Amino acid sequence: MEREPVDRFKAFDRFPELTTKRLVLREVTSDDAAWYHEHFSRPEMIHGQGAPPPDGIKGAREELQTYFTDLFENRNGFRWGITLKGNNGLIGSIGFYKWVKPSGHQAEMGYDLDPEFWGKGIMTEAMMSVVDFGFRKMGLNRIEVLIMPRNRRSENLVRKLGFECEGILRQHSFDENGDFCDDVLYSILRSDWMAGRRPQEDV
Question: pTM for this one?
Answer without folding.
Answer: 0.91
